[in-house]
Design a protein that fits this description.
Helices cover 35% and strands 26% of the residues. It is built from nine helices and ten strands. The strands form two sheets. A six-stranded mixed sheet has the order 6-7-8-3-9-10, with helices on both faces. It has a four-stranded antiparallel sheet with strand order 2-1-4-5, covered by helices on one side. Helix 5 runs parallel beside helix 6. The model has no long low-confidence stretch (mean pLDDT 90).
Length: 234
């Protein structure tokens, strides 16, 4: 569904991505893993077309990214993107104006599941609640592709658990593709199908999670330690 073909992305003299080629399969939950600065967010921004490759190409369904394909993507950025005057219902109305795949029933279900209320003022709620609001708005769409950029960063363990529960609650296996970037591997290891490890803009390890664990006889957390702390190559 999503393809990177010899993609390099430079910011000045810095290579955020260095000749990346990979296929991200349809209908799976894929973890894009690695420490801060490894290139995870850059990959997400290329898929959303917020950034352009310096060389190579990014394809969705074997075609260049277009306005039509972008309509099928729900993007949850790491940085808040709400206006401070908004209540949750204002943010909802803003989003649903732009996307025909908005599912009001899903929104109402997730609103209760995440213990949020329509009239909550976004500027007054906690960081964990703001993280839930971003998740609420992303998963209230029937998008083919959901991109989650560091959704677990800087929030408490209970909110993390709720976010992961939400991620799998109405996941359409075989139809919907979810790509999640994180360095918090332990929390998501049990829900992702495929893992892609990035280091300094390069892919150092990738594959089906069950196969990786069986072949290496290591958990994903231990694999990460081997790759990033010990510099081991697989």
């Amino acid at each position: 569904m999503i393809q990177f073909k010899n993609v390099t992305k430079k910011y000045g003299k810095t290579r955020a991505l260095d000749d990346i080629s990979l296929d991200i399969g349809k209908g799976k939950i894929t973890g894009l893993l690695g420490p801060n600065g490894s290139g995870k967010t850059t990959m997400i921004k290329l898929i959303t077309d917020l950034n352009k490759p310096s060389s190579g190409e990014v394809l969705i369904n074997q075609a260049s990214i277009s306005q039509e394909s972008k309509k099928r993507i729900a993007y949850l950025p790491e940085i808040d993107h709400f206006y401070p005057w908004m209540k949750i219902k204002d943010a909802k109305n803003f989003i649903k104006t732009f996307y025909e795949d908005w599912d009001e029933k899903m929104y109402e279900e997730l609103l209760g599941f995440l213990e949020l209320e329509d009239n909550m003022a976004i500027k007054k709620i906690s960081k964990g609640q703001r993280a839930k609001v971003k998740l609420l708005l992303a998963f209230s769409r029937r998008a083919d592709i959901i991109l989650l950029d560091e959704p677990l960063s800087g929030i408490d363990i209970f909110t993390r658990e709720k976010i992961i529960e939400t991620m799998i609650k109405d996941y359409r296996e075989g139809e919907q593709s979810i790509l999640i970037t994180t360095h918090e591997i332990k929390e998501i290891e049990h829900v992702i199908d495929d893992a892609i490890f990035l280091k300094q803009g390069k892919i150092v390890l990738q594959g089906d999670v069950e196969q990786l664990r069986a072949e290496k006889n290591l958990s994903l957390v231990d694999l990460m330690k081997e790759v990033y702390s010990n510099g081991k190559e697989f």
